[in-house]
């Protein structure tokens, strides 16, 4: 092994670990609803992934696919020794992370004014804020070679078609999740986590907030979206005493109204803009991604809770995002 190989080997290890670290930190930031900070951490994970890939290629670990598959079958994945700190953070990345630290110290996310669109060169991992350059200042790659982490995509990049389909699916998934559980089981918080009923009431609350915002965006010109925080899980404890049939009815009715508003909208309508205090001017599509990704997270939690109730197991529940958010 030459000195360069040793250095590349070290880089591969530290960048691979770094990529995992930043990716899982990004997921956690999403749970805590720091969506702009999550976007920064996702871009940082991409920087490390690109650098790890470069090191892999220099080490000669990337051959034709047939050879790669044979290596994989033979269990010959590159050996990595996971030691040492996560390193390789550039001065600019540090500056962005310091902005995040400052916002978090004040208990809030970065705003769209504090963290612009981010772009990562897919060839060399160079990170840019603001506008994507015509050519990468570091390696010369064209603009088309950049991965983007834009503010408008901060809630996800599902199409309007997929958003409507997911909202429809909820109408089947939610009743299926409560099927066969007693009122007592549904009202019982597990290990300090919310009760089933809290979450179902909460999903309805969020559906209503989303529909109100969607209506404003569609019917008025560039509205300011409610600055008040959407109802949190803490506000959903009151649903614990409501019969489950009533909660399901409330969810279904709200969701049908939301779907009635969204079905058949043109692409232009999905691009209509509302002004959000943290995310800035965002299209309806952004808000659709927001409500769908929020619901998806809670449906997964509900499925885990159901499993624990039915089989008496106690898998560690994923921390519910609102509990972490005062
Ligand atoms: Zn580059």
- What is the fold-level CATH name, i.e. the topology of the largest domain? Four Helix Bundle (Hemerythrin (Met), subunit A)
Q: Could you give me the name of the CATH homologous superfamily of the largest domain?
A: dinb family like domain
Q: Give the C-alpha Rg.
A: 23 Å
Class by helix and strand content? mainly alpha
Q: Uncertain runs with pLDDT below 50, 5 residues or more?
A: 318-326
Compute the number of structural domains. Answer: 2
Bound molecules: zinc ion
Q: Kindly report how far apart the N and C termini lie.
A: 53 Å
Major β-sheet annotation: 3 strands, antiparallel
Annotated CATH architecture of the largest domain:
Up-down Bundle
What is the highest CATH level, the class of the largest domain?
Mainly Alpha
Query: What is the string of helix and strand elements?
Result: HHHHEEEHHHHHEEH
Basic shape: globular
Topology summary:
Layout: H1 3-31, H2 35-58, H3 65-73, H4 91-105, E1 118-121, E2 127-129, E3 146-149, H5 160-178, H6 183-187, H7 196-219, H8 244-262, H9 267-270, E4 273-276, E5 280-283, H10 284-311
Antiparallel strand pairs: 1-2, 1-3, 4-5
Helix pairs in contact: 1-2, 5-8, 5-10, 7-8, 7-10
Bound molecules: zinc ion.
Zinc ion (ZN) is lined by residues 121, 123-124, 126, 136, 138-139, 141.
Organism: Chloroflexus aggregans (strain MD-66 / DSM 9485)
Protein name: Rubredoxin-type Fe(Cys)4 protein
Domain DinB-like: 167-300
Write structural notes for this entry.
By secondary structure, the chain is mainly α. The chain has two domains: 151 residues, no CATH class; 165 residues, Up-down Bundle (Four Helix Bundle (Hemerythrin (Met), subunit A)). The protein has ten helices and five strands, in the order ααααβββαααααββα. Helix 7 packs antiparallel against helix 10. The chain binds zinc ion. The site of zinc ion has 8 residues, from loops.
């Amino acid at each position: 092994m030459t000195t360069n190989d040793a250095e590349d080997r070290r880089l591969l290890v530290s960048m691979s670990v770094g990529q995992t670290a930043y990716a899982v930190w990004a997921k956690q930031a999403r749970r805590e609803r720091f969506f702009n900070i999550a976007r920064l951490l996702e871009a940082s994970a991409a920087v490390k992934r690109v650098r790890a890939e470069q090191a892999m290629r220099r080490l000669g670990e990337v051959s034709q696919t047939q050879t790669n598959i044979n290596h994989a079958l033979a269990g010959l994945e590159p050996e990595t020794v996971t030691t040492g700190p996560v390193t390789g953070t550039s001065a600019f990345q540090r500056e962005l992370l310091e902005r995040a630290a400052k916002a978090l110290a004040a208990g809030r996310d970065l705003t769209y004014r504090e963290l612009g669109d981010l772009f990562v060169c897919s060839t060399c991992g160079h990170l840019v804020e603001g506008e994507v350059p015509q050519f990468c200042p570091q390696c010369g790659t064209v603009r088309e070679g950049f991965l983007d982490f834009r503010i408008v995509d901060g809630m996800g990049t599902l199409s309007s078609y997929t958003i409507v389909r997911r909202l429809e699916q909820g109408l089947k998934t939610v009743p299926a999740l409560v099927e066969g559980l007693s009122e007592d089981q549904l009202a019982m918080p597990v290990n300090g986590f919310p009760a089933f009923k809290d979450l179902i009431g909460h999903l309805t609350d969020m559906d209503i907030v989303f529909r109100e915002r969607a209506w404003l965006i569609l019917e008025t010109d560039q509205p300011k979206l409610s600055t008040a925080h959407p109802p949190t899980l803490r506000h959903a404890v009151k649903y614990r005493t409501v019969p489950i049939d009533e909660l399901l009815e409330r969810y279904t009715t709200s969701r049908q109204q939301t779907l009635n508003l969204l079905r058949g909208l043109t692409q232009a309508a999905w691009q209509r803009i509302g002004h959000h205090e943290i995310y800035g001017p965002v299209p309806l599509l952004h808000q659709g991604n927001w409500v769908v990704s929020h619901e998806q997270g809670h449906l997964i939690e509900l499925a885990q809770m159901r499993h624990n109730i039915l089989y008496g197991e106690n898998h560690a529940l994923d921390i519910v995002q609102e509990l972490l958010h005062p």
